């Protein structure tokens, strides 16, 4: 039986296009497997500039204008988040190739990528679904992408004083945060910004979200975890009368007086995993979880 012809959309970090030997190696592999290759426009032009020659692809695309079997993210977790935002509700599995320093989402090394792609062509891999959350302002979706795989952060602007965030969960008043901000994180984002401000590490598929204040005025306010089916409402006040809403790092300025709603999105992100990849082993390797760092 003939092997099915597959198509791939490729996203990349333009600063990592300098690692062209590795990237060209991956492209050559896909060409050798007679795959249809589509490359995101900005990354394609950067590659052309670095390579100083054209290479065989099916087409170039912009933003989310693609329809393929798989997406390949070449970079770090930031590149993976960009790819995930472009995939959106398409449910296309994403292969994250780590060309950066620390990769929880981009967890395939450049040395492993051919083996993982072999598994994809043979259909011998696992799909892990990750929850996504969304942000609405006064019941309307934000102008920019409102969906976050990692986290949604409500933050003060620049040198402004701390902000006040009145939080309710499923219509019940929780607390008013006096802080530099508040990070609402999925399990996927629990090892990102949330962790750096003292949030808990959450195992994927736990079905919960965490709410962690950023530099709270009171030490009595601690991180809290809630069911991911809950609806969170936030009312923000600021001396500067505006604040930032960061959705997976994509910031948008909002004015006080709006009511924000955070809830689970109607779709999940699909991540390709090679057989044998497990969260706890990744935790030990990436964060040196449990390692004795004392110097003798």
Automatic annotation (TrEMBL):
It comes from Prevotella melaninogenica. Involved in the regulation of the intracellular balance of NAD and NADP, and is a key enzyme in the biosynthesis of NADP. Catalyzes specifically the phosphorylation on 2'-hydroxyl of the adenosine moiety of NAD to yield NADP. It is found in: Cytoplasm. The lineage of its organism: Bacteria, Pseudomonadati, Bacteroidota, Bacteroidia, Bacteroidales. It comes from the Bacteria. InterPro entries: ATP-NAD_kinase_N (IPR017438), ATP-NAD_kinase_PpnK-typ_C (IPR017437), NAD/diacylglycerol_kinase_sf (IPR016064), NADK (IPR002504). SUPFAM superfamilies: NAD kinase/diacylglycerol kinase-like (SSF111331). Its cofactor is a divalent metal cation. Keywords: ATP-binding, Cytoplasm, Kinase, NAD, NADP, Nucleotide-binding, Transferase. Signal peptide: none annotated. Belongs to the NAD kinase family. This is NAD kinase. Its main location: cytoplasm. It catalyses: NAD(+) + ATP = ADP + NADP(+) + H(+). Pfam families: NAD_kinase, NAD_kinase_C.
